[in-house]
Amino acid sequence: MGERCLVPAGSLQSDGGPEAISVPPAHPRDKWSKKMDFLLSVVGFAVDLGNVWRFPYICYQNGGGAFLIPYTLMAVFGGVPLFYMELALGQFHRTGAIPIWKRICPIFKGIGFAICIIGLYVSFYYNTIIAWALYYFYSSFSSTLPWASCDNPWNTPNCTNYFGRNNVTWTNFSRSPAEEFYTRKVLELQKSGGLYNVGGIRWQLLLCLFLIFTIVYFSLWKGVKTSGKVVWVTATLPYLVLLILLVRGATLPGAWRGVLFYLRPDWGKLLSTAVWVDAAAQIFFSLGPGFGVLLALASYNHFHNNCYRDALITSAVNCLTSFLSGFVIFTVLGYMAEMRDVEVEDVARDKGPSLLFITYPEAIANMVGSTFFAIIFFLMMITLGLDSTFGGLEAVITAVMDEYPQVLAQRRELFVLGLITVCFLGSLSTLTYGGAYVVKLLEEFGAGCSILAVVLLETIAVSWFYGIQRFSHDVKAMLGFTPGLFWKVCWVAISPTLLFIVASSLLEQPPLALFGYRYPAWSTSLGHLIGASSFICIPVYMVYKLVWTPGSLKQVRLKGSTEVPPSSLCFIC
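Structure for Transporter, as requested:
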């Protein structure tokens, strides 16, 4: 089907693109000031909090060092090819996630709208997690960390501090000072009745979130000229902190126990299908194809930029960062096991935000120089989160502004302010006493199966409808060489198959629970509606296109309007 279309309208570029069809842009497009601005922005988006809290847990749960085999294979055959595809699409067509489909396959334009809705859902909860980190960061400026003891007003009789003490009995009802600080002081979950009654808004968290969004606004309001400078700090600082924490963790008693637990291979796990599915899910969510971010960031590149090399470098950095984070986390977990006189497995049960807000802070509180390490740890978390927020919101900004350039081209500051305001208001429910329950719900359903389904359809639309040969020609026009057979096979067959398998496996999730609270049945139905509300844009737009476009299904409809170049904007593709 792809062979019917001619060279897309965006193929002529002012800096040396293929000279086929030219339509001068009404407004000159911004470009990255330096190549490193782009690379750091991509790395900053891909390397986020999930690299620190998710990968180590998934790794030890699925066979330790043996898990690196399926993880590497899934990266090579699934994640990296899709990463490369999105960078090439964005760089060639120089436009965002919504209007790009006019040039690829118009009937799939609903993918762009779905991407923007998913981006909003993620912003509703992800920035709240950064606000929690900011609260911890502020609380760390104390000679004695507030989660180091049980002598605080928020503590309960169940609070048990075992560090530096002998003959301490730990029961199923025992709670560490760090856990009670997180649940009873930061979140104040005790004032909530669950999702039925989330309670009022925590004004301290509201202030923290306001400060986060203020930073985000002034980093994005002028476009890549400002965000490209900010990432020099936010994308590099986490690596300095990770190295400091790694060195400190390696010197702790029992650190070797954690490393052995992290990497000890369990080859039998490789026979389990679930391990391979977890590896694929981890790499897809980690690299982040489908969120529109790679499209947006690459669209500000020079036409002949080597996006192939960029894809290999940035995806390798992402995977290595995940691996490094595992050492940072598990050296500390080994230390905690040594102090508790238990197995590492008994202290390595937390995953997600709990790992970052309970387990690791608990270990930091009992180190020499605890205040310093707490400050740099939560500063690292803030910068990791901000980078991903920059990318996620830039995807929405670029998509909408490129779709409506006549209205928004000269009003970027106002549009970004409006978008930030919407995100802030949408986050208010996560700032309540029961806000952690809302965060968990949005985290599970806001960008789960829906984003994988979006990536699957995006890959099919480009490889099968637009045509793998045409896409390869586009890449050759930019880079001077055609993608090899390996990449073509991955784009056409292997990557879509892996995406389908992973998305299918995530359809049936176990009942949600958080801190002993079991989510009601209606909340799961609500979660599925949230997930469907973004994906539904795709079939709805297809129906709209079928109903309102004259001609038969396979008919090519050439636009004679001067507003649209004669680039064969086909009905389907």
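The first strand starts at residue 513 and ends at 514.
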